[in-house]
Design brief:
With 123 residues, the chain is of the alpha+beta class. The protein has a single domain, classed as GTP cyclohydrolase I, C-terminal domain/NADPH-dependent 7-cyano-7-deazaguanine reductase, N-terminal domain (GTP Cyclohydrolase I, domain 2, 2-Layer Sandwich), CATH 3.30.1130. The relative contact order is 0.22. The radius of gyration is 15 Å and the shape is elongated. It is built from four helices and four strands, in the order βαβαααββ. The two termini are 20 Å apart.
């Protein structure tokens, strides 16, 4: 399966277990691997035969910058659902949601979750 990669997309959201996270918010980054068939787009050079990266960014942004969630696991799952609903050509997706500088004891650059989903997971 072919892939479209979107790396280090940055958003500001209010996700987390602690009240200060929901009030102050923080930066999140998202990496995507969109699994689709790019053969036709490669031959036709027509955007209608692919998945528009700008539209993907908007969909992800609506989730990350939208309603606050306790868990980044839920953010990742919501991104997957929205992508499959929005993009018919999407066969599978790998989503990594990264939370830099989490407010937990210790020294962390970030914490992240990564999920893999296929269209059949939502049918």
């Amino acid at each position: 399966m072919d892939k479209i990669l979107l790396n280090d997309m940055m958003f500001y959201g209010y996700h987390g277990l602690y009240p200060e996270e929901n009030k102050l918010g923080q930066r999140f980054t998202v990496d995507l691997q969109l699994l689709t068939d790019l053969k036709k787009a490669g031959h036709t050079d027509d955007m209608n035969d692919s998945i528009h990266y700008g539209h993907v960014y908007k969909v992800v942004g609506q989730v990350v910058e939208g309603e606050a969630k306790n868990l980044i696991e839920t953010v990742a799952e919501d991104i997957a659902k929205r992508l499959f609903t929005t993009f018919e050509a999407l066969h599978g997706v790998i989503i990594k949601v990264n939370k830099p500088g989490p407010p937990i004891p210790g020294y962390y650059e970030s914490v992240a979750v990564e999920i893999e989903r296929e269209r059949k997971d939502y049918e």
